[in-house]
Amino acid sequence: MGHLTDRIGRKPVIGLGALGLILLAIPSYMLIGSGNMMLVFAGLAVLGLLHTCFSGTMPATLPALFVTDIRYSALAIGFNLSVSLFGGTTPLITAWLVDTTHNAMMPAYYMMGAGIVGLITVLTLSETARKPLKGSSPAVATKAEAHKLIDKLRKQRGRKVQQHKPA
């Protein structure tokens, strides 16, 4: 999944996963509840594939949201708080919803809600694929790129020196 996000971008893959949750959560849960082992496997496979749209892109997407100076602190706080709040409480909330409503499809509805939140979030993200991280030093892949970058930096430095010379 990481290779795909490098090619087409992170937003399309995350958006596909969120849209997939919205459209396929109920059919997947119906397959899981069918009692037929092959259908149960198919429903779990669909949800697993949708999960890879998120888990395969997040290691590249989340760090790119923050500048270098605060990247790992902000990432650690944001990620761990969200996992604690939502990952830790989801089983409890969905079990309560099933018990209260007597509707075994409540986890599917919950997943659809998460998909809607994810889709809205994707629309607000800026694409980070094939771009340097905010605040990071320049990176090059070839000697030609290195020479081009050095020439560019020398020109910028030359302009700054000329601007600061007394008249």
Write structural notes for this entry.
The chain is an all-alpha fold. It folds into two domains: 2-136, MFS general substrate transporter like domains (Growth Hormone, Chain: A), CATH 1.20.1250; 138-167, no CATH class. Helices cover 74% and strands 0% of the residues. The protein is built from eight helices and no strands. The chain has helices at residues 2-8, 10-32, 37-55, 58-61, 71-87, 90-101, 106-124, 143-164. α1 crosses α2. The protein starts with a helix and ends with a helix. The mean pLDDT is 87.
Note the topology.
Elements (H helix, E strand, L loop, with lengths): L1 H7 L1 H23 L4 H19 L2 H4 L9 H17 L2 H12 L4 H19 L18 H22 L3
Helix pairs in contact: 1-2, 2-3, 2-7
Mean pLDDT: 87
User: What is the fold named in CATH at topology level of the largest domain?
Assistant: Growth Hormone, Chain: A
β-strand percent reads under 5%
As residue ranges, the low-confidence spans are none
The largest sheet is: none
- Helical content stands at over 70%
Number of extended strands: 0
Give the oligomeric state. single chain
Structural class, judged by helices and strands?
mainly alpha
The CATH class of the largest domain is identified as Mainly Alpha
Distance between the termini: 58 Å
The total number of structural domains is 2
Order of helices and strands: HHHHHHHH
How many helical elements?
8
Radius of gyration: 23 Å
By CATH, the superfamily of the largest domain comes out as MFS general substrate transporter like domains
CATH architecture of the largest domain: Up-down Bundle
Shape: elongated
